[in-house]
Amino acid sequence: MKEKIDQYFGITKSGSTFKRELTGGVTAFLAMSYVIFVNPIILGQAGMPQDAVFMSTILSSAIAMLVMGLWARFPLGLAPCMSMNAFFAYSVVLQMGKTWQEALSTVLVSSILFILLAISGLRSTIIKAIPVSVKQAGTVGLGIFIAFVSFKNSGIIVPDEGMFITFGGFHDPNVIIAFFGLTTAAYFLIRKNQYAVFLGMIGAAICGLFIRFGASMDWFHLSESVVAGLPQLPSGSPVVLPTQPMQSMLDETFLVAVTTLPKMLSADSIIVILTFLFLDFFGTATTLSAAATQVSDIKRESFEDNKRIYSADAIGSFVGSIFGTSSLSTYIESVSGIIAGARTGLMSVIVAILFLLSTFFYPVLSLVTPAVTTPAMVVIGIFMMQNITSIKWDGGFEEIIPAFLTIVMMPLTGSIALGLVLGFLSYEICMIFAKRFDELPPVMHLISLISLAYLFTL
Predict the structure, then answer these.
(1) What is the pLDDT of residue 292?
(2) Were 316 and a residue from 35, 257, 277, 328 both cysteine, which residue would form a disulfide, CB within 3.0 to 4.6 Å?
(3) Domain range holding 175?
(4) pLDDT at 290 over 70
């Protein structure tokens, strides 16, 4: 059996070993595992049942990684993407006013389109049509947007009549929890520890438990409502059969995306679908580029132009929408498994198995509050912010203006879609002003027309 597994995955051929694949799988799981607890919190703010999202997150991620490992045979992990669950909850549902059921339908349609584009090869044509500055600015804007939302949810920033927003103050224990978690994550980031995100959340949870204990001992005088929002240990065993979240998923989110498909023909729905498609495209492309730099004996093209990898990504989003979660994408954190020595799809299979085992730790969700997730959200924002150096700041104002608008309008308007639309339109207009209209590919004109149509729906 061991020899057959070796031959199927090409472990020895790739210069790896079973031990390295196992080590890489465990490493990638620990680096990615925060999504299991963060995703239900984010989508819960859109009105989705958190226990159902917990289960759908795990199942869809596991299936996607099994496809990646057994079919594409590449060492990459997939799970609901932080930028796309933020877009799902805060832009599509809370800002645009769509129901979470309709939002799931947009994920379903975008995943089907992604599958078709990945198989046909049109994906590459579309990616090349969108200017680099707008692509990178979109990633930067998303990073700022995600950090902004996490600061708001943890109480670090609050509404203010004079200045619109202001610092929430350390009288709120959630602000202390969030900053303690951020400090913990910062320490491990600086020490180049690949578990920095996970450890930041652990630090925040421990801080929250200490404050809860202090309140119960009358060390701190906090209201009952404040104490109720603090992290708490599971009331029973932390390990249980996942019957409740499984039943919740089957009753409340499973196949819901199919029932609202008829509403997907509106202009705003089409924009949402295309935005999910755009985010998935470039999120995966960025991860594959990072992964390629860690494997010197595999050509970059083997990652970036591999149709099976993109197809596995799209299949994951399709399965996720059926079960009840936002779009899945290839995780940059899973590259830590490659750094640890993994070289084959066996790593992805190991991560999938570990995800499935985590279903038994459902009660641990009581430890995860918005303040506890702040380190994860902010660190992801920091990673995405690094793309700002890839923007062509010396390429003339026809590059600078669209990039600036894309970056600032996402967090200021609370709409990821609007930021992208303004970036696309302003790029086309600025290129006309610069007398460079003939440099624009036909696909870019189509994207601009769709963007213009979206503006008229607002």
Answers:
(1) 58
(2) 328
(3) 2-129+162-384
(4) no
